[in-house]
Every structure is written in structure tokens, then in C-alpha cells.
Amino acid sequence: MDLLHIRACEILGISRQELADKLGISVATINSWTSDPARISQTTKLALELMIENHELKMIIIKAKEAQEAITNFKE
Question: In 3-state terms, what secondary structure has residue 49?
Fold first, then answer.
């Protein structure tokens, strides 16, 4: 079972408490999702998905900048 909140914590490298702070909810609410994933609202699911997508896009940008820098350094 893919628990979105756990995956978000792993991908973002943050704790459940940090995720709770980012979402403006209690860590107890996040912990309750582990036993009952249906409790996650659609809005919260969307927020988690967007947080993951945003992180992935940031990583792509970082890699592109590193590649550009490597090419620039190679030309010199």
C-alpha cells in the first residue's frame, strides 16, 4: 500500500512533524492516516502530490544547472 504522506516524507527528506508543520495540521492527524488512509482529504492529497512534484522539478533544475556548469567548465 502506497501511503502518500510517508512517500512525501521520504522524498522530501522530512519528518512527520515537519510535514505536519508545512500542512498546518497536527502530527497526530498525519499518524492517523497510516491506519486509515481514507481520512486524507482530497485537498491534502493534492497538496502532498504537488509538494512531491515541486521537489522533483527542483531536482531536475539542479541537475540541469550542474550539467550546464560542467559543460561551461569543459569548454574553458
Answer: helix
